[in-house]
Amino acid sequence: MAISSGDMNPAAKPRGESKVNSVDRALVILEYLGTQTKEVGVRELGQAIGLSKSSVHRILQTLRARGFVRWNPDNARYSLGMRAFEVGCGILRSMEAHAAAKPHLEQLVNQLGETAFLGVLDDSEFVYIDKIDGRRSVRMYADIGARKPLHSTAIGKALLAHLDRAESDRIIAARPLARFTKNTITDADALRQELEKVRRQGYAEDNEETEEGLYCAGAPLFNYSGRPVASISVAVPKIGQQNLQRDRIVKAVVQAAQEISAKLGYTGRGKGTTLG
Question: Which has more pLDDT, 123 or 185?
Answer without folding.
Answer: 185
